[in-house]
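Incident log, support desk, overnight shift.

02:14 A customer reports that sequence design results differ from what the structure should imply. Their input is reproduced verbatim below. On-call engineer (initials T.W.) acknowledged and began investigating.
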């Protein structure tokens, strides 16, 4: 039987519902225009590759391993989840799940410990996406007794031999990832797609705060929104700022202050209405040590490493 000479690419895309995933990402994440554009390019490439496969034009599957670079809190994990969904809908992975790990999940503490740990993680990730955050910590040349290189060698083998059943995404700071690839050219040569995640602008961070606030069923008034804007302007200048992660942590602390304020007010007045329970006031933000001059080093460090 002769191979078909045409393929309905529009039907292929429609049946996969890939556009739903891309539209959901647009709604889910503020900004990140270059990331979203690159993701649409990858989705188009995968759809066209699938169409070529149906016409017997290309026998080899496309290389799908990726590298995400950028500062913490810029949406890398969220995008990885959406990519897994796209890969699953287009038939490139069986399950479409994401297994997110760090060095500690892969590297053992003694001889013979690393291989089973790494292989167990890979077994869980098969049929989906393995997301390795701060992947450069796998390589520690200054410690000759470190077992990270063993994990890298196992990963390289699986990335090559099982690339039709597993997609690996490495993530971390851009400069450190570049150093990692220079030290591990075998890993770099297997990464087909490099996506850089920019920091959010102050306006985008404020929009993120408003979206998070609405999702948690809280609200700003004009004064508290101005206080949040001032908070962002101060916080982005401090060390270890973690973009959307820092904004979420700031809202969590403001909610704690709001709860204490409402609780104390209720002790005097008794009655509490919905407005009091949902409004974050300016004082809930301006009580932050960002304004009072105290250091947020400990909290900031936690934000950047969790």
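02:41 Re-run completed on a clean worker. Output:
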């Amino acid at each position: 039987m002769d191979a078909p000479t045409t393929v309905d690419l529009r039907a292929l895309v429609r049946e996969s519902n890939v556009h739903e995933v891309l539209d959901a990402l647009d709604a889910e994440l503020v900004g990140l225009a270059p990331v979203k554009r690159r993701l649409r390019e990858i989705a188009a490439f995968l759809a066209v590759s699938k169409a070529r496969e149906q016409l017997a034009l290309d026998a080899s599957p496309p290389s799908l391993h990726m590298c995400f670079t950028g500062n913490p809190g810029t949406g890398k994990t969220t995008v990885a989840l959406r990519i897994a969904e796209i890969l699953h809908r287009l038939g490139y992975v069986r399950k479409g799940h994401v297994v997110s790990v760090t060095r500690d999940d892969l590297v053992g503490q003694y001889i013979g410990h690393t291989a089973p740990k790494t292989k167990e993680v890979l077994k869980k990730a098969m049929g989906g996406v393995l997301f390795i955050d701060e992947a450069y910590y796998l390589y520690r040349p200054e410690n000759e007794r470190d077992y990270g290189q063993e994990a890298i060698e196992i990963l390289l083998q699986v990335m090559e031999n099982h690339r039709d059943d597993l997609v690996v995404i490495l993530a971390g700071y851009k400069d450190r990832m570049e150093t990692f690839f220079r030290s591990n050219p075998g890993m770099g040569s297997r990464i087909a797609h490099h996506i850089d995640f920019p920091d959010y602008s102050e306006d985008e961070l404020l929009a993120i705060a408003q979206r998070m606030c609405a999702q948690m069923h809280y609200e700003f008034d004009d004064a508290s929104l101005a206080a949040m804007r001032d908070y962002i302007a101060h916080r982005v200048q401090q060390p270890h700022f973690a973009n959307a992660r820092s904004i979420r942590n700031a809202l969590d602390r403001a909610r704690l202050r709001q709860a204490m304020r409402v609780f104390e007010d209720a002790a005097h007045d008794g009655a509490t209405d919905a407005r009091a329970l949902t409004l974050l006031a300016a004082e809930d933000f301006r009580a932050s040590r960002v304004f009072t001059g105290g250091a947020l080093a400990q909290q900031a460090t936690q934000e950047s490493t969790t």
